[in-house]
Amino acid sequence: MTRHPSGLLRISPEVEAALVRSQPVVALESSLISHGLPPDVGPDVGRAAEERVRERGAVPATIAVVGGTVRVGIDDEVVSRLAVEPNVRKVGPRDLATCAVSGTWGATTVAGTLAVCSVAGIHFMATGGIGGVHRGWADTRDVSADLDEIARTPVCVVCSGAKSLLDIPATLEALETSGVPLVGFRTDVFPLFYVRESPFPVPDRADDPDAIAAAAAAHWGFGRTTGLVVAQPVAEEAALDAADLERTIEAAVAGAAAEGVRGPAVTPHVLAAVHTATAGRSLEANTRLVVDNAGLAAEIAVAYYR
Fold first, then answer.
1. Residue 90 bears catalytic tag
2. Do residues 226 and 152 lie in contact, with contact meaning Cβ atoms separated by under 8 Å?
3. Is 250 a catalytic residue?
4. pTM value?
5. If you average pLDDT over residues 262-267, what whole number do you get?
């Protein structure tokens, strides 16, 4: 197991071997295990995502902070403990060093995972949905660190768009301003996590992983240092109705504001409310899209290194 000179980062032997040999590696966030899904569901979804990456020919690298060490590639025991360990910290880029130095446990967000990818040399990642500009941002200035990290890290991020609770036009504008390519996978519109359709077109579309891999290679070949966002809609059979979901989200966002929920706590608070309101159907959609995105990221990574 390779250790960073600081002693705070370790890359598993499997992941290290793949990176040294220029073989496809897909990074996976761990916040969904600790914070995004119920504790009896998160570990199984994390394992299923890793298994899908392997099935598609790549090496999974789930990233987490374990007892003060940033781990790139974790074992099954750690996956299980991330869901039940007390006070697991939600780790973004600003939290990475302090969480590691403090000796605590932490689960990386999209942005936190990208920050580690930059150090480890991983160029492909899968998640559920990226963060973005929050509703009411003009007053709160609440903008996810995901956007800045995607804008500065050469990683292809496969997701199901962004969560509907965000200000989607502002989120898409931020990506454009930062020069981040946005590609719809077999879709002409930007998906909204549980919802397949939206009124927001994507600037580019690709219908196979090879085309996305070629776009990534060309983007970085032109000296661009930003990431790319690949948006894959949730499977049709798992998708939720857009109008019903919007009403639920509006009520949940208002409830969060009334209860004084702020910052990183808003998204898990709203998602929990949506889960309750949809009688678990949102959880099924969440599980499906996380695993499917892991598979697509692996296919793109395999094509890139072919």
1. no
2. yes
3. no
4. 0.92
5. 72
**Candidates 50, 90, 149, 163; catalytic one:** 163
CATH superfamily placement of domain 2-305 = Indigoidine synthase domain (3.40.1790.10)
The structural domains of the chain, with segments of one domain joined by +, span 2-305
Give the up-direction half-sphere exposure of residue 158: CA atoms within 13 A in the CB hemisphere: 32
Burial of 86 per CB tally in 10 Å (0-12, 13-18, 19+): exposed
How many CB atoms are located within 10 Å of the residue 99 CB? 24
Token couple for 109: 């967000």
Please identify which of the residues 16, 29, 149, 299 carries the catalytic annotation: 29
Q: What is the pLDDT of residues 129-176, one digit of tens each?
A: 999 998 787 777 889 999 999 999 999 999 999 987 899 999 999 999
